[in-house]
Design brief:
The protein is an alpha/beta fold. The chain has 11 helices and 13 strands. The longest helix is centred in the N-terminal third of the chain and has 15 residues, at about 95-105.
């Protein structure tokens, strides 16, 4: 990649691609921080230079009270927007929604839950959840790429909901193959279903790395979040699956160019400003990461920030 002076303003193309893109999931593996540690990290990152890339704080609904006990010490109203949370639903969706409503009613001056994440492997689970949802709660349904995958995405499209894909974990077997990720993305793009990704996306470019922070932990190939975001953009431009797979498995950072007003891969494959806006608006909205510092540090080392 062409190096960019770190003192220079962030390119418009980069800002559009990555603004609000990283949902902070420090409570989850492999970081698995305590609530106190995760909240402090999020508060610091909200106040940091790269806060424009920071999305929501992700937590299970069962830990809302614990979160509030700690985070209330960091809330400020002096010109800062309130905190935004994305909550993972519990087993009982009605209880989850009641807890969210109560939380928002009592705390909306400082923090709001405006995103819900639900696991759904059946059409009936999607339908039952949607029928219980209040307005203004953006909901992502984590769906597997199984035999009923097309039915699930079709239902999400019909009910104007969003999808979620799990892109990694703490062992190599947790990482879906590139072709499976592409199948998910093409289906969502074709059905006009925005989506988010979660897990295994600490690094911008596909790489072979340790999957945990343990000294003797397993290693494996991790998908890159830039690969995924740009692949989504080219899927929206009807690139064939084979070409998309080449992009998902690209490990050479020098073949990506970040310029004004475009981003290109291998020179002739270009996403302009409109393409970038659309891939974020109607394609991939964000990705969950247990670290915010790692993606930022990698983007610095690549000369993108």
């Amino acid at each position: 990649m062409d190096a960019i002076d770190q003192k220079s303003p962030v390119l418009e193309s980069v800002r559009i691609l990555l603004e609000g893109a990283i949902d902070y999931a420090g409570l989850f593996p492999p970081s698995q921080l305590s609530m106190s540690e995760a909240v402090i990290n999020y508060a610091l990152n909200r106040a940091g230079q790269h806060n424009w890339m920071l999305g929501r704080f992700v937590l299970p609904v069962a830990r809302l009270s614990e979160f509030l006990d700690i985070a209330s010490h960091y809330f400020t109203s002096a010109g800062q927007r309130g905190w935004r949370l994305s909550v993972l639903a519990g087993e009982n969706i009605n209880d989850t929604i009641r807890q969210i409503a109560n939380f928002n009613e009592q705390n909306s001056a400082n923090v709001v839950i405006d995103s819900l994440e639900v696991k759904a492997n059946t059409v009936s689970k999607i339908e039952n959840t949607v029928s219980a949802l209040p307005p203004n709660l953006t909901t992502y349904f984590e769906v597997g790429i199984g035999e009923n995958f097309v039915d699930l995405v079709s239902t999400l499209a019909f009910r104007q909901q969003r999808a979620k894909i799990r892109t990694g974990g703490v062992v190599p077997e947790d990482f879906p193959k590139s072709a499976e990720v592409i199948k998910f993305v093409r289906a969502c793009v074709g059905a006009n279903v925005p989506f988010k990704a979660t897990a295994g996306l600490h690094h911008p470019i596909r790489c072979y790395r340790p999957l945990t922070y343990a000294a003797d932990g397993p290693k494996g190939t991790m998908h890159g979040f830039l690969n995924l975001f740009l692949m989504t953009g080219f899927a929206r431009k009807s690139f064939k699956p084979k070409r998309l797979e080449e992009l998902m498995e690209e490990e050479f950072d020098e073949v990506f160019r970040f310029e004004e007003p475009r981003i290109s891969w291998r020179d002739s494959n270009v996403l302009d400003i409109f393409d970038l806006q659309q891939l974020r608006l109607a394609g991939i909205t964000s990705f969950g990461s247990c670290s915010f510092d790692e993606p930022v540090a990698d983007l610095h080392s690549l000369g993108i920030l």
